[in-house]
Amino acid sequence: MSNRKANGIYRGLAFPALIVLVFLFALPLYFTFSKAFEGGFDTLKSVFTSPYSYRLVRFTVVESLLSAFISCLIALPFAAFYASYDFKLRKLTLTLSALSFTIPSILVVLGFVIFYGNNGVLNNMLKSIFSLEESPIRILYTFPAIILAHVYLNLPVAFNLITNGWTSLARSEEMASYTLKKGKMKTFLSITLPKLRGVIANAFVIIFLFCFSSFAIVMVLGGSPEYSTLESEIYRRAHISLDYSGASALSIFSFIITTIALSLSYIGRRKEKMERRESALKKIRKKKGKALAALMTLAMLLFILPPMLSILYRSFFDRRGDFSLESWNTIFSASSFLSAILNSLFIAMTSAILATVLAENIAMYSVKCKSRIAPLFATLPLATGSVTLGLGYNFLAAKIGLSSIYTDYLLILATHLVLSIPFAIRTMLPGAKEIPQRVSEASYTLKKSAFETYMRTERPLLKSYRRKAFIFAFALSLGEVNATLALAGGRITTLPILIYRLIGSYNYQGASALGSVLLILAFIVFIMGERIGKKEGTWNISR
């Protein structure tokens, strides 16, 4: 069978997916951007030349770069150790770091307020131990709080991505360097680091984009206009000041910066070629090595666990430290709780199914037809904040005169779908690349059509990647708060929205009870993914 005919099948599969993506992503983005030009170029000019706009851009870029840099810098020594040695608790630490992919940002906010707050768990412990009257740590509502929260959320991401890339790296050149009596540091700087450049750069850009479009962390932990970012300012102008033109102009500003960052990351990944090998970890036998392994594992666990465990603790104990089930009784008796659970599960399930189907078709087309444009376009939503996307959907709904509860559901579903597709694509692409060409050719020699080959031979090989993409998209949608808050206007409530409202009203015990439910749901989803990963492969969003 000719390649042209076979490729036609993949184009046919990808065409509807790309059309859906154009409609769901490009169309609302067009409405958002066009709003900036409604009054001519005056609004755009005033925003692009305003000192306040440049202050917003400067602060957003600085906090995103700093968060990404610190996350990757701290992750490197941990990744070096975990990529080289096998020891007890290694798998547990890697598993807990991978859990960060499914932890909603609203839980990070809640965990930080409860653990690091002025009257939080950490301060209460320190006051009790050292007999202090005032809280020694006052970090909330400051710039360091934003950075620390972003590092907390993204350090495990950097650690996981760099460790995975480092573990599978061929070591022949390093071994040759050691035989030439070159030290570990010189070998690392001259050989290993250049090989890992693409992996580190990819982790850096992913974290930069996460931080650039961060909303809940900045809104709650910043607590001051001084710490406004482009995303929070877009939300403020659109939903508080009702300055839609100004919000749209800022969206253009934001999109230009993030698209440049994403494009550079994509170009770097295309050029990056690494010789890979199967993992060959060394067993630690010396006491020094075991002590170092224990110290590094303890450091990572003490960084990851306390804020999340403090949510569970606070749901059962009030501010004075007295045991109480009042918050649990309240949420279980409230009708809004059941509604929020059902809304969250329905939206997450539907958007995850659709994202997985679309991502699979686009991934197969990208690999089989060697398209560079399709995967780049499919990952462009990474360069668009969810508040910006939500703003576009609001404009679209107003343009066509749609205003009902069903419209709200459709808009939220569409937004969650668009935001999930880039990560589903990144999960599916490695699977599509790993399908052996000889398997497809063998099917063609048996007189099978291209469609039969895809359905009966190639598609079954994507089973594990399809499941992982679904779980990843489900977890992302389950914890999404920005777009839902921007779109629903209070008419549709999900678990993250309820938690956000309770944090805003300082009801931390109630927020912790709801947060515990969301944390358990995220953990269940993650464990399902881990079971699939152990049987059929590993998590991967880095390629």
Describe the protein.
With 543 residues, the chain is mainly α. The chain has 2 domains: 1-35 and 333-543, Orthogonal Bundle (MetI-like fold), CATH 1.10.3720.10; 40-316, Orthogonal Bundle (MetI-like fold), CATH 1.10.3720. Helices cover 76% and strands 1% of the residues. It has 24 helices and 2 strands. The protein has helices at 3-35, 42-49, 51-82, 90-98, 105-116, 121-130, 143-167, 172-179, 184-212, 216-222, 230-239, 244-271, 287-316, 326-333, 335-368, 373-378, 386-399, 405-433, 437-445, 450-458, 463-478, 482-488, 495-504, 508-536, and strands spanning 85-86, 282-283. A two-stranded parallel sheet has the order 1-2. Helix 15 crosses helix 23 (495-504) and helix 18 packs antiparallel against helix 22. It starts with a helix and ends in a 7-residue tail after the last helix.
